[in-house]
C-alpha cells in the first residue's frame, strides 16, 4: 500500500460512520485568460497524491471504496494544455482501484449514500457539489469540523513515506542554499540571489516553492516576511535567505544569515552567536513529551541573556521574558509545524493544549515522534518596535534604546532548521546547510 492510500485508510477508520468527500482545487484566474500556477489542495494531496485540477475524492469507509474522479477534457483543452490522464491512467498513476470521470460523481454519490447519514466534507466541497448537482447529497448532514479535526490529527504525525518526501525537499533546498552562499558578493541584487536559489531547486526537478522566497539584505533582514527582493546588497551587510522548495507538496523551510563579504564583522558575530547557540540548544531539547511553548520560553530566555551581554537589555532575565521586553528584538515564535503546508497544523482537538504562556504563538503542542517542525529563533533591530513611543515608555527600564539605535541599520539574524522528533533522544535534523561561523566563512571563500 502506498503512502497516500494508507492515509485514506487511516481517515476512513476515524470517520467510519459516514461518507468522506473532498473536492481538489480548481485553477484560479489571475487576469484575462491567465491562471495562477496551479497548486493542489494539501488535504487532497495527502489523500491521493493527485496533481490534476478539478478532481474529486469519495471514500466510503463501510464498503472500503476509495474513488478518484478526474475531469473529462475536450480536444481544445488537449490542444492548449496537453494530455490529462484518463480514469484508467489515473487509477494506475495514483494507486486507486476505482476512478471515473468527474461527471459521474453525482451518480456515484447517490449510490454510496444508501445506509449513510453523515457527509464528512468541507464547506468549499459542499458548495461545489451543490453547483454540480444540488440533490446528490440529499439526506446526508455535512460535518466539516469533524473532517478538519481528523485530517489535522493525522497530518501532524509524518509517516516514513512523508518523511522521505520532506527529506528530499530539504536536501534540494540545502543544496540551493550552499550554491547561494558560494556565489553571493556585495553589489549583487537580492533578486539575483533569489535567482540562484530558485534555479538550483528547479534544476533538481523541484519546480515549486513552499512560499515566496525572502531575500533580505542589510536593514531589510529585520522585516520578518520581506518580499521586495530588489535592493543592491551592500558591502559588509548581512544577507538573510529564508526559502524552501516543495516536493509533491511537502515543504522545506530553511533560513540562513551570512555576511555579503564572506566574513562576519565583530558586531555581526556577537549577534549571530547568540542566535546560533540558542537554536542549537533548542534543537537538542526538542524531544518527545516536551511542550513547544517551553521551547519558546527557553529560546526567549537565552536571547534575553545574550542581549543583556551586549548591553541592549538590562534587569532580571525572567522579567524581560514575562513582560515582553525581549519581544522587541525577537517578536515571533520558535517555529511551526511543517508538512504539506509550510505552516502545518499542530494536531487536532485531541492534541490541542491551552497556551500555558501569555505569549501569542500559534505553535502550542506536546511533541510526539514523527512531528516535523522548524526551529528558527532570531534577533532583529526593527525600527517600528524600537522607535515606538509606547514601547519606549513601557520598556524604559529594561531596554537601552540609545544603544539599540546604533544597530538600526544592522537588520536581523534568523537561523532555521527543519527537524523530526524521534522516539527517544534528540531530533533528526533534515537541514544540511552550514551554520557555524567558520563553516560559512569557508564555504563563502570557496
Ligand atoms: N518561512 C517563513 C515563515 O516561517 O514564516
Ligand atoms: Mn519558518
Helix and strand layout, with pairings?
Layout (H helix, E strand, L loop, with lengths): L2 H12 L4 E5 L5 E3 L2 E2 L6 H7 L7 E5 L4 E6 L4 H7 L5 H8 L3 E4 L3 H8 L5 E3 L2 H10 L8 E2 L1 H13 L3 H24 L6 H14 L4 E2 L4 E4 L20 E6 L1 E3 L2 E2 L2 E6 L6 H20 L6 H18 L7 H6 L49 E4 L2 E3 L2 H4 L2 H6 L6 H5 L6 E3 L2 E4 L7 E2 L7 H9 L1
Helix pairs in contact: 1-2, 8-9, 8-16, 10-11
Written description of the protein model:
The chain has 446 residues and is α+β, with helices and mostly antiparallel strands. The protein contains 16 helices and 19 strands. It has helices at 3-14, 42-48, 75-81, 87-94, 105-112, 123-132, 144-156, 160-183, 190-203, 266-285, 292-309, 317-322, 383-386, 389-394, 401-405, 437-445, and strands spanning 19-23, 29-31, 34-35, 56-60, 65-70, 98-101, 118-120, 141-142, 208-209, 214-217, 238-243, 245-247, 250-251, 254-259, 372-375, 378-380, 412-414, 417-420, 428-429. The strands form six sheets. The protein has a six-stranded mixed β-sheet with strand order 6-5-4-1-7-8, sandwiched between helices. The protein has a three-stranded antiparallel β-sheet with strand order 9-12-13. Strands 10-11-14 form a three-stranded antiparallel β-sheet, with helices on one face. Helix 8 crosses helix 16. The chain is globular, with a radius of gyration of 24 Å. The chain starts with a helix and ends with a helix. The structure holds glycine and manganese (II) ion. Residues 253, 336, 374, 376, 416 line the site of manganese (II) ion.
Amino acid at each position: 500500500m502506498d503512502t497516500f492510500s494508507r492515509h485514506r485508510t487511516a481517515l476512513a477508520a476515524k470517520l467510519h460512520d459516514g461518507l468522506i468527500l473532498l473536492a481538489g482545487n480548481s485553477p484560479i484566474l489571475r487576469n484575462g485568460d491567465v491562471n495562477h500556477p496551479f497548486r493542489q489542495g494539501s488535504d487532497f494531496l495527502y489523500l491521493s497524491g493527485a496533481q490534476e485540477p478539478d478532481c474529486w475524492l469519495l471514500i466510503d469507509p463501510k464498503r472500503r471504496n476509495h474513488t478518484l474522479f478526474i475531469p473529462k477534457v475536450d480536444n481544445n483543452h488537449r490542444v492548449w494544455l496537453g494530455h490529462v490522464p484518463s480514469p484508467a491512467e489515473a487509477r494506475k498513476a495514483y494507486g486507486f482501484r476505482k476512478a471515473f470521470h468527474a461527471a459521474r460523481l453525482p451518480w456515484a454519490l447517490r449510490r454510496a449514500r444508501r445506509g449513510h447519514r453523515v457527509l464528512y466534507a468541507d464547506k468549499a466541497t459542499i458548495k461545489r457539489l451543490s453547483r454540480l448537482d444540488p440533490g446528490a447529497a440529499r439526506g446526508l448532514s455535512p460535518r466539516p469540523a469533524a473532517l478538519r479535526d481528523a485530517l489535522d490529527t493525522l497530518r501532524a504525525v509524518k509517516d516514513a513515506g512523508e518523511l522521505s518526501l520532506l527529506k528530499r525537499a530539504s536536501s534540494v533546498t540545502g543544496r540551493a542554499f550552499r550554491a547561494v552562499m558560494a556565489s553571493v558578493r556585495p553589489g549583487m541584487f537580492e533578486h539575483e540571489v533569489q535567482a540562484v536559489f530558485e534555479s538550483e531547486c528547479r534544476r533538481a526537478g523541484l519546480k515549486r516553492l513552499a512560499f515566496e522566497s525572502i531575500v533580505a539584505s542589510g536593514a531589510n533582514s529585520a522585516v520578518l516576511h520581506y518580499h521586495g527582493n530588489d535592493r543592491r546588497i551592500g558591502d559588509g551587510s548581512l544577507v538573510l535567505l529564508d526559502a524552501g522548495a516543495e516536493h509533491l507538496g511537502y515543504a522545506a523551510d530553511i533560513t540562513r544569515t551570512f555576511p555579503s563579504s564572506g566574513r562576519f564583522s565583530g558586531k555581526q558575530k556577537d549577534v549571530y552567536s547568540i542566535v546560533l547557540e540558542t537554536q542549537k540548544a533548542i534543537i537538542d531539547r526538542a524531544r518527545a513529551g516536551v511542550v513547544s511553548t517551553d521551547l519558546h520560553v527557553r529560546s526567549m530566555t537565552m536571547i534575553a541573556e545574550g542581549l543583556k551581554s551586549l548591553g541592549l537589555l538590562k534587569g532580571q532575565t525572567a522579567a524581560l521574558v514575562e513582560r515582553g521586553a525581549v519581544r522587541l528584538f525577537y517578536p515571533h515564535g520558535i517555529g511551526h509545524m511543517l508538512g504539506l503546508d509550510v505552516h502545518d497544523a499542530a494536531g487536532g482537538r485531541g492534541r490541542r493544549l491551552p497556551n500555558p504562556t501569555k505569549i501569542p504563538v500559534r505553535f502550542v503542542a506536546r511533541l510526539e515522534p514523527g512531528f516535523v517542525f522548524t526551529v528558527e529563533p532570531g534577533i532583529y533591530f526593527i525600527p517600528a518596535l524600537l522607535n515606538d513611543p509606547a514601547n519606549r515608555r513601557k520598556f524604559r527600564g529594561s531596554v537601552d534604546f540609545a544603544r539599540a539605535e546604533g544597530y538600526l541599520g544592522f537588520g536581523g539574524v534568523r537561523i532555521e532548521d527543519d527537524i523530526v522528533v524521534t522516539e527517544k533522544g534528540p531530533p533528526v535534523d533534515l537541514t544540511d546547510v552550514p551554520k557555524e561561523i567558520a563553516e560559512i566563512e569557508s564555504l563563502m571563500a570557496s
